[in-house]
Amino acid sequence: MKRWVIRAAVLLALVGVGVFLKFSVFTPDPLPVSVMEVERGRVEETVTNSRAGTVKARQRAKLSPEIGGRVAEIPHRKGALVRTGDVLLRLHDDTQQAAVQMAKRELAVVEVKRERACLEAARAEREFLRYQQLKERDLISTDLLDKYENLAQTTQVSCKQTQAEIARARSAIVEAKAELAKTVLHAPFNGIVADLDIEVGEWTTPSPPALPVPPVLDLIDPSSIYISAPMDEVDSSKIHEGQPVRVTLDPFPGQHYEGHVRHIAPYVLDVEEQNRTVEIEVELDDRTFASTLLPGTSADVEVILSVKDEVLRLPPSTLFEGHKVFVVEQDHLSLRSVEIGMRNWDFVEILAGLSEGEQVVTSLDEEELEEGLKVLVRSSPGIQ
Q1: Has this prediction a pTM greater than 0.70?
Q2: What does the pLDDT average to over 106-117?
């Protein structure tokens, strides 16, 4: 009996040591996890562009002179601000100036010719009237009167002909001046010289039919800057003019710019090997900043469809496997199903399943996560 008691005592001691070792020496360390507290804030329902948008200018002109010639002057260089009507480029115009002077001299000659012809017509008319009076007194023959009448009519026609020649000469002057005007390239609107592809002394050639020639100058109106973004056709019915948008630009990472939908294309763009999209035009609210953007810059547009304030929210990255989250309860993980509402890339609205202040695991990349696992909270930041 005594021996049995000793054995039982030894057995109990071994069990006790095993239990002690299990819960002390051999107990795994708590798994460190990152968490965040469920807080209240704003959640937005948004749609974003299906491909990168592009900064564009409504007023942008790629300009070249109407005629060929050698460049004589470029008053404004790349980056210069110009006003409507400012001279952007001037060609050598010796030939055109000579043509204008020649047309003016031609007009002067025709005017002298007209003066002489009209004087002769007036003299012939007086002669005819005098001989007509003589005929009334039967002092001259009818043939002689007809002769002077014919002379009066002929000189009158010559006078009128020279008047037509004067009109033609004046038209020639207008035409010559028009050709002269083609040697000067004027700014069609206020803008910035974005690019210049020619220098003083170089030749420019007008574009022949069906053969485009690269323009020599690119003029952009910075006040007309907007963003064109392709939106998936399935979202087209949700987007309306005037809706607020949030824009991100590649040259300004981490920054957002407010704007609004200005225009929606009245058709769906069907391009082979691409999703069907609807182009929208977005204007930034800060027009001063917008005027500094370079056309061609990539941009992403997020159209804000609706907004809810002061609702429970979490980042979408904390959810997994059909709207489930890991919640830390008394240093152990609890798997919780949640009901979600409005959502976007940044936040998900929590309708049910969580309370404000509860700690939700954010480090879901840990492979050992499972319900009931003891954890050590690494950090508990609020939602930014």
Answers
A1: no
A2: 88
